[in-house]
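Record format v2
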Amino acid sequence: MPVKAKKWILAHHFDGVPKDSDLELVEEELPELQDGEILLEAQALSVDPYMRVFARSALKEGDTIMGSQVGKVIESKSPQHPVGMMLVGSVGWRTHAIVNVNQGPDLLGTPIVVPATPAPGLPVSVNLGVLGMPGATAYFGLLELCQPKAGEVVVVSAAAGAVGSLVGQIAKIKGCTVIGYAGTDEKCKWIKEELGFDHAINYKTRDVAESLKEAAPDGVDCYFDNVGGDFLYTVMRQMNKYGRISVCGAISQYNDNLDNQKSGVFPGILLIVNELRMEGFISTRWLSRWPEAFKEMAAWMKEGKLKYRETTTKGFENMREAFYGMLRGDNTGKAVVNV
Ligand SMILES: NC(=O)C1=CN([C@@H]2O[C@H](COP(=O)(O)OP(=O)(O)OC[C@H]3O[C@@H](n4cnc5c(N)ncnc54)[C@H](OP(=O)(O)O)[C@@H]3O)[C@@H](O)[C@H]2O)C=CC1
Ligand SMILES: CCCCCC(=O)/C=C/[C@H]1[C@H](O)CC(=O)[C@@H]1CCCCCCC(=O)O
């Protein structure tokens, strides 16, 4: 029986905040499998901030939206990928995908499919969050670039999100004082009371510079930046000598047209005077070491030192709403769509 797949395509390039007419749900009939191919059926799909940015450079109008999912093999012409196997696949916003397992890696050198990390008792969607790309981002982006030491002060923005909530907890495990900024009082309550952050500040109701002076009177040693823009400059002004800034994301700027970014004066003086180190990264830099991060984070979860949360949307037809919701801050922890 031919399989009818549903997929979301980019109908129009985004201009500002994504809107319904930019994304369209279409159906396609999939062909018969050839040798070396598998048919994946989506179980859980990820919506991530990078989709807003890279749609422009990586997709043409009419292309399927990029993205990862946990899929189950439901038909196979590859002996190494039996029916029932769970895989994490970069196959885009699709209910069903035919994958040639010998196909080369994606644009970033990431394999198209890899086996899901076994996580007994946990939903498969953890492969899209704490034991997936956001988990690796938090782990390596913090530990490799900020190199936090016990007793130091670590600040993280978008602190109740997929990456930020893990960054703060890892910094606590390393013995740091952690200050998290998030966009609602409920999110702040979660990261302070359940995740153990030392300070949780609602950046929508408090002035960032003033609240940071109060929470970190002796200055900031590490800043894990998920937000960019003015937020970054504000924290930079309160960094201590030899402070480290891990530039992970710039979500406050993703709805702007990056070709028309206003040029400001780069705050080089702050870097020079305080001898700061500031480095951007893409988490696939450490792709070969991701299993190391997942092993350690799974052990921390078992010991009760690391917690995660997911905000789930039910139904593939609601991918678009889940994506908008994540961009505007509706999610706590990782935003996923369960099929
Ligand atoms: N460099 C890399 O390899 C990677 C980078 N990233 C980056 O990390 C960041 C977090 O990603 P992820 O954890 O997946 O997403 P989140 O789960 O944190 O979701 C995005 C969050 O960003 C916050 N936000 C939205 N708009 C703004 C704004 N204007 N100012 C401040 N906060 C805002 C919202 O929370 P709130 O309610 O707090 O505003 C929202 O919930 C993103 O910038 C992303 O691009 C992610 C993965 C890999
Ligand atoms: C200015 C945008 C910063 C985006 C930061 C971010 O969220 C990065 C996420 C990457 C994650 O670590 C692994 C990925 O697959 C995400 C990036 C995908 C990049 C596609 C590049 C396409 C292109 O070459 O244009």
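The longest strand covers residues 37-46.
The chain has two domains: 4-125+309-338, 133-284.
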